[in-house]
Amino acid sequence: MASKLVQLQSKAAQASQFVTKHGCAYYKQLLERNKQYIQEPPTVEKCNLLSKQLFSTRLASLPGRQEAFWKELDSVKQLWKNKHELKVEDAGIAALFGLECFAWFCAGEIVGRGFTITGYHVK
To answer: What is the 3 state secondary structure string of the chain?
Structure first.
C-alpha cells in the first residue's frame, strides 16, 4: 500500500511539473484558438449581461422545444397504434434505448452514493 502511495505521489509531482512548464503556453494557445468567442471588454458586467442573455434565450426556446416534444409524442402514439406493423429492428432499437436509459439511471445512482454499490463506505 505504501509503495502505491509513493508511486501516486511521484506521478502527481510529474503532472504538476508538466503543467508548470506547459500550462501558460497551452492557456495562450487556447485563448488564441477561441478568440472569436471572447467578448470585449472582459468585465464582470459583460459576463452578467451574457448570462442574462443566455437565460432569456433559453426561456424563449421553450415553446419550440415543447412543440418538438409533442410532435415526438404524437409519432410514438402513432407507432403504438400501428404496433402490428412494427418491424423487429424498430422494436430492438426501442428496447436498447430503454436499456440505455436504465443503465444511465443506475450509473447516476452509483455516482450519487459516492461510487459505492451498497451505499456504505468501506474504511
So the answer is: CHHHHHHHHHHHHHHHHHHHHHHHHHHHHHHHHCHHHCCCCCCHHHHHHHHHHHHHHHHHHHHHHHHHHHHHHHHHHHHHHCHHHCCHHHHHHHHHHHHHHHHHHHHHHHHHCCCCCCCCCCC
Give Cα 46 to chain centroid, integer Å: 26
Residue pLDDT, tens place only, 28-79: 999 999 999 988 888 999 999 999 999 999 999 999 999 999 999 998 899 8
Q: Taking the domains of the chain in order of start, what are their residue ranges?
A: 1-38, 39-86, 87-123
Place of cell 409533442: 70
